[in-house]
Amino acid sequence: MKATDAVQPPTRSGRRRPVAAVVLVLLVLLTLCGPWLAPENPLVGVGVPFAPADGAHLLGTDHLGADVLSRVLAGGRTLVLLSVVILLAAYLLGTAAGMLAAFRGGWAATLTMRMADVLMGLPPLVLIAVIATGTGPGVTGVAISVVAVMLPDITRVVRAATVQILAHDYVEVAVARGESTAAVLFREVLPNLVLTLAADASVRFAGAAYAVATAGFLGLGAQPPTPDWGLMIMENQGGLSLQPLAVLAPAAMLLVLLLAAGRLADSLGFAERARRRGFRTAVRKPAPGRAAPTGPGAAPDTVAAVRGLRLRVAESGRETVRGIDLTVSQGTVVALIGDSGSGKTSTALALLGHTAPGLERVAGTAHLFGIALDGLSRRELARHRARTVGYVAQDPRTSLPMNLRVAEQITEQLRAAGVPAPERRPRAEEALRRVALPYDAAFLARRPFQLSGGQLQRLAMAVALARDPRLLVLDEPTSALDPENTARLLVEVVELCRKAGTAVLLISHDLAAVARSADTVVMVREGRVVRTGPAAEVLVETGPTGRGPAEPGTTSVDEEKVGPVEPVPGLLAAEPAGAARLSVAGLTVERPGAGQVLAGVELTVPAGGRLCVVGPSGSGKSTLLRSMAGLVEPTGGQVALAGEVLAASVGERTALQRRRLQLVPQNPYDSLNPRHTVARIVGRPMRQFALVPPDRVAEETLDLVRRIGLTESHLSCRPAALSGGERQRVALARALAARPDVLLCDEITSALDRSTALAVLEVLDRISRELGVALVVVTHDHLVVEQLGGELAEVAQGRLVHTVVTGPA
Amino acid sequence: MTATHPTATATATAGAGRWTLWRFVLRRLLSGALVLLAVSAIVFAATGAAAGDAASVSLGGEADPAAIAARRAELGLDRPALVRYGGWLLGVLHGDLGRSYVSGTPVADLLCARAGNSLVLAGVTVALLVPVSLGLGVWAGLRAGGLADRVVALVTLSLVSLPEFVTGTVLVLLLAVELDWLPAVSVLGPGQQLADRPQILVLPVVTLLVACVAHNARLVRAGVVAVSAGDAVATARLNGVPEHRVVLRYVLPAAIPPVIPLLARYLSLLVGGALVAETLFGYPGLASMLVQASAGRDVPTVQAAALTVAAVTVLVNLLGDLLGVLVDPLRRMPQ
């Protein structure tokens, strides 16, 4: 299996879609115009029954002597129109019911679920037969039953999609800004629902047409002498041997219609399943002349190495790894660090002879314990890996198979490494002991879902360590689950490896973890190694931001895009500075089951002031912000802005109050509506609060977008086209567009990598000074505190402990 | 932290698992009964409109009003709907399904004569369907993206779109009309039993298989592909677990159990298919009886047949869910 094979499926399914679409459109047109094209009256006999095809009747005649061609041409219109009407009715009812169920929850949701249960007991065609008994045979009965069959399912789909959309931060931001329910529904929810509905409807069209045609065939739908493909197939069964065309012609039409509809639906909605290739191992690329089976010939203590590795995305051809060399020596701990997307994981996988699906290798060789991986068959590669390497994937919650018991997780891999059966169980117990997990029979019999997150992480390590690998590869072990415990476990494991002389390749973006355990650090940026050296040296040069010294001649992406910012007069400077100050007194929030989250928080932020709130995760930082924004109702205490006490719930606050207090949520990948352009997102608060005359909104939006470091070309972009940093800038701009007095920022750097976070913070720092906006920033990131300065407070036991005034504020 | 008393917790979990299983069965049985009750109400209400005219229908077009009134009284149609529903339901529970409006014979007798034939048809189909679709789905799923997979995907996708009556008609044309290997219609002479003419099963079974295998194989394939592309399988491969062990221990045990309840759900397609296949071939089963009765507006027969079909569907789904839970440890975890 060559890596280049991975390219094929996407292009294929991509080509299929237009063909199916064209066929479907042509066919639908033909069926709609068919009755006018029919050469004869399809309703009356024009010849002898079951006459074979001749010059007068190109497809012969049917059981009544009517012209088959005319009946076939006329017989699709009812089918297509009825199917469309059925879909329209079903989606209209289903969308209304689904949204209602999503908003109301409770009984509406239960009702739709029960409806689906009941209909599951009554298969669609049986329901048609039952309803046709009541209404009499005919299209009305068919339409009613097919709508009834589809309704619960559509309602469920709409409800699920709506619930999901409502959970996004962009909806919350709109609610916090005081948008009406109708505005939330039509602006935020519906545009995102439309795509889901379209994909869903394309699937169901074939289903509806199938049901209508089958009802016709069973004699429960259109009645004679109406021309109808399904009915024709039944009527002419008797003449099958005499005049097969009378049956085959309508059958063929039906077939093409359903096939094209099904094909289109499949390529729209479900193609990516076929597209995603299985996890292919072994890049077997014959590299003539270069395949040196004895390793790179360098230092004898080299356990693994890649040379000149270049990888690119198969579909776009974009190179993600652009010539990387990496060597891991015996008994050393090498850390591969860099921002997400810099190519570090792909490099580590290449070291194991693997190219991730969707990528292809352009150049480069990999050696593992002196053996060139390119020369190995799939089976040989597996054997070689099993005997030398232990690989621990990022997230133990997904990388440990749920069906295997704890003991089996380990023994299965010992088996692969050729450990004889009687030794496996004792070695499994020994491995569990080493990572401080219990190793009694009851624990060995558990399955992953019966373990805690921390236990899973230890088990993943135990699985890899059990067979005493000579190289341990840890793929971002610090990015999942609880970071503190993970870091501790990492130190333990590295200690174990040092004692056993095992080499470790550690992939991470957590510099603290690296500093505590690595000997050598290799820093990767944009597919190239930018720095290699002893850990202490590289990390000191890099500094706490992890951004590293800029290379001569290159600037980071963010810097290129930001450009010089020309000062823009006007806009927010018009707002009278001064007066506003935010004060919180005795704020208490209780959550059912969780007890008091906040217990009497006191804080004051002067106009233009800054407050950084730090604390461990789960300490109630976000709750504090959200209760100030009116999204969480406090059980006690009050929030006042410029001396006015604010209502607890955002819905009861005045428009002015809502405008003056703006929230920037944590995750920029969730806080922007994917269906809106940047211009629409940033312009909306100006329109909503009527801050700017409608004809000047575009101009003011551009001003603001420039001030936060984006350009005019970004205005027409949708969020998907933006990087994380750019998104967070847009989220900031949206909040600033309301001309707030206070900006509430919730962990705004946590989803960004270091260098991007720094750039965003610089913008926030600058613009909040320029505009005189007060900041309340919640974070657990010291970078934020250093960069923004101001007053520092810590949440502890539900209270705010004010500490120091720091930094440049 | 559970690590402190692993033994105690594990026992508790296993105990809870067993208890959960029983509660699950009970709950599903109860909800199955409720679904049937709801189905009976829908069936009664939907056919009720026709029951109103049944008197005039059964007397022919131009009967005089007095005769119709007498007939209505005879059929008990002058009573309020709710009373009639109660009486009917009570009768059903005692095995009294009323008399056919058309033939006047007790519906229970008609039903018994036909249910056996349908059971044989469905039994033979399912016995072939399950192994074939599992085999095909797994085979294609393990070769995801390869040539074999693409061929299977293309064929099954085409077959999924194919209505049973088209498949059946083509089969008749080929195997019965052109080649004359099999009977074109699956009717039994008077007094004949299915055992006398087993060859009449072949075409209906093949017609049903063609439609259902495609659906089920796609389902199985999707499950296998999803698991194969997952983290657990990738990690096993990167650790050098040999391919046959990956399939046997990591892919199949994770992919197959969740598919089982879905397969059971797809059996309702089989019921729809049976409706078509029995009608097309004139097979003397329950489904063709339902269609005939519906066209003839024979209300008691429709009600009885629909209720029987619903009961079987609910039962199959219940069994599928149960089997899924039994073979899938994941679903046995206490919620």
UniProtKB/TrEMBL annotation, chain A:
<comment type="similarity">
    <text>Belongs to the ABC transporter superfamily.</text>
</comment>
<dbReference type="InterPro" id="IPR017871">
    <property type="entry name" value="ABC_transporter-like_CS"/>
</dbReference>
<dbReference type="Pfam" id="PF00005">
    <property type="entry name" value="ABC_tran"/>
</dbReference>
<dbReference type="InterPro" id="IPR003593">
    <property type="entry name" value="AAA+_ATPase"/>
</dbReference>
<keyword id="KW-1133">Transmembrane helix</keyword>
<keyword id="KW-0813">Transport</keyword>
<protein>
    <recommendedName>
        <fullName>ABC transporter ATP-binding protein</fullName>
    </recommendedName>
</protein>
<feature type="transmembrane region" description="Helical">
    <location>
        <begin position="79"/>
        <end position="103"/>
    </location>
</feature>
<dbReference type="InterPro" id="IPR003439">
    <property type="entry name" value="ABC_transporter-like_ATP-bd"/>
</dbReference>
<dbReference type="InterPro" id="IPR027417">
    <property type="entry name" value="P-loop_NTPase"/>
</dbReference>
<keyword id="KW-0067">ATP-binding</keyword>
<comment type="similarity">
    <text>Belongs to the binding-protein-dependent transport system permease family.</text>
</comment>
<feature type="domain" description="ABC transporter">
    <location>
        <begin position="306"/>
        <end position="551"/>
    </location>
</feature>
<keyword id="KW-0547">Nucleotide-binding</keyword>
<feature type="domain" description="ABC transporter">
    <location>
        <begin position="582"/>
        <end position="809"/>
    </location>
</feature>
<feature type="transmembrane region" description="Helical">
    <location>
        <begin position="124"/>
        <end position="151"/>
    </location>
</feature>
<feature type="transmembrane region" description="Helical">
    <location>
        <begin position="245"/>
        <end position="265"/>
    </location>
</feature>
<feature type="region of interest" description="Disordered">
    <location>
        <begin position="540"/>
        <end position="562"/>
    </location>
</feature>
<dbReference type="Pfam" id="PF00528">
    <property type="entry name" value="BPD_transp_1"/>
</dbReference>
<feature type="transmembrane region" description="Helical">
    <location>
        <begin position="19"/>
        <end position="38"/>
    </location>
</feature>
<dbReference type="InterPro" id="IPR035906">
    <property type="entry name" value="MetI-like_sf"/>
</dbReference>
<dbReference type="InterPro" id="IPR000515">
    <property type="entry name" value="MetI-like"/>
</dbReference>
From TrEMBL, chain B:
<keyword id="KW-0812">Transmembrane</keyword>
<keyword id="KW-1003">Cell membrane</keyword>
<feature type="domain" description="ABC transmembrane type-1">
    <location>
        <begin position="115"/>
        <end position="320"/>
    </location>
</feature>
<keyword id="KW-1133">Transmembrane helix</keyword>
<keyword id="KW-0813">Transport</keyword>
<protein>
    <submittedName>
        <fullName>ABC transporter permease</fullName>
    </submittedName>
</protein>
<feature type="transmembrane region" description="Helical">
    <location>
        <begin position="266"/>
        <end position="284"/>
    </location>
</feature>
<comment type="similarity">
    <text>Belongs to the binding-protein-dependent transport system permease family.</text>
</comment>
<feature type="transmembrane region" description="Helical">
    <location>
        <begin position="29"/>
        <end position="51"/>
    </location>
</feature>
<feature type="transmembrane region" description="Helical">
    <location>
        <begin position="197"/>
        <end position="214"/>
    </location>
</feature>
<dbReference type="InterPro" id="IPR045621">
    <property type="entry name" value="BPD_transp_1_N"/>
</dbReference>
<feature type="transmembrane region" description="Helical">
    <location>
        <begin position="304"/>
        <end position="327"/>
    </location>
</feature>
<dbReference type="Pfam" id="PF19300">
    <property type="entry name" value="BPD_transp_1_N"/>
</dbReference>
<feature type="transmembrane region" description="Helical">
    <location>
        <begin position="151"/>
        <end position="177"/>
    </location>
</feature>
<dbReference type="InterPro" id="IPR035906">
    <property type="entry name" value="MetI-like_sf"/>
</dbReference>
<keyword id="KW-0472">Membrane</keyword>
<feature type="transmembrane region" description="Helical">
    <location>
        <begin position="119"/>
        <end position="139"/>
    </location>
</feature>
<dbReference type="Pfam" id="PF00528">
    <property type="entry name" value="BPD_transp_1"/>
</dbReference>
<dbReference type="InterPro" id="IPR000515">
    <property type="entry name" value="MetI-like"/>
</dbReference>
